[in-house]
Amino acid sequence: MNLVSRAVVILTIAFTIFITATNSPGQRRAEEAAAQVLDSVPVRRDLYPVNADAKKEIDEALSRATVEHKRVLLIFGANWCYDCHVLDHALHDGDAGKVVSRNFLLVHVDISEGEKNTELVKSYRIPLDKGVPAVAILDANGKLLYSSGDGEFEAARKMMKKDLVAFLQRWKE
User: Fold this and answer.
1) E strand or H helix at 15
2) What angle do CA 107, 173, 128 make, to 5 degrees?
């Protein structure tokens, strides 16, 4: 075998090893899993508007919920909370977004640094010590159906899309 032929064989073997390593089943599973967690998003300054009246927005949502036959999804959080932004994006996007738009009215409840909307935090049994975002679901009459008391949404950036969709499906009716 001449020098050129040997070089071609060596390069072919090296290329094959490289391709195999970069497309290994383990790597593909990791990439697929990463694609299934909630998407990373840019942070917005106005997700929780400073002057919003959360109590009024909840009352308006409850009025509409009766007419539209929907539930009210309260998201407690703050503009500084990255996971709040991730969850909000997921609630407007993909399969989760479709479930939300058909079945829920979404209201953001700003907790700021923990001192804002404290009466709503208490009313809807949101334990801020477990982190935000936190979620409460109300029926059209305002009855509390669900409150995330164990910090289930606190690490939204690690949530699986399918788990969020399953959660929403469970509480849509």
Assistant:
1) helix 3-22
2) 40
